[in-house]
Amino acid sequence: MLQGIRVAVPAAIVGVLAGTDAVNAMLSSIPEVITRGLQVSGGFIVVVGYAMVINMMNAKSLMPFFFIGFLLAAFTNFNLIGFGAVGVIAAIFHIKSIANEGNAAVANAGGLDAVDDSDLL
After folding, report:
1. What is the dihedral of CA 8, 11, 13, 18, to 10 degrees?
2. How far is 13 from 7, CA to CA, in rounded Å?
3. What gap in Å lies between CA 66 and CA 50, rounded to an integer?
4. Binning pLDDT at 50, 70 and 90, where does residue 109 land?
5. 47-55, long-range: CB within 8 Å, 24+ apart, which pairs?
6. Where do the domains of the chain lie?
């Protein structure tokens, strides 16, 4: 909250004292190379943040899903609902494969029948 106040108060003061026309003129005087670079770097900050969270969770098995999602976002026009649907489908397949590996390990270790995993969905 303090960080937001630290930025919002000076910006509001400049906006009130200088007026919106002066602020718009200052913003439009910034070269497009710089504004485009800031847009790209802002996108990378999000990606690096997600990667850091996955790394801190020590979930190396989820990294392929992260890279697939990043590539889909970069080269398609999916919206958030589309990404959500793809994520749900990928999660179901991932959970089912983990359950099947566990069932196979239980069956091989004790000579038991595989456990029914139909209740996972």
Report:
1. -160
2. 10
3. 8
4. low
5. none
6. 78-121
